[in-house]
Specification:
The chain has 93 residues and is of the alpha+beta class. Helices cover 23% and strands 46% of the residues.
Length: 93
Amino acid sequence: MNDIGRLKKVIRDLYRCDSVHVQSVHIHETIQEKVIWDADVEVFLLVNHSRAKRAYAWSYTDDFGQLRDMTILGVPPINSAVEAVRTCTGVES
């Protein structure tokens, strides 16, 4: 489960703008029947960002057990939570 407050702070720190949480989108991606992603992505509207109206974000635990956060701006070609995940996982649509 993603911590919305934590992700909003990450967005503010990285992109220097406030955000409004819009929705959680569950993404399930597979390659050749192997699950490579099965988790929620949080969608945020950005307030007064110069390049993007949306950001996609989630938290994950890395190989060392550390909690990490990922954020991606919604700029072309990334226009959805699915595209954000595919960009990070290297999956082509």
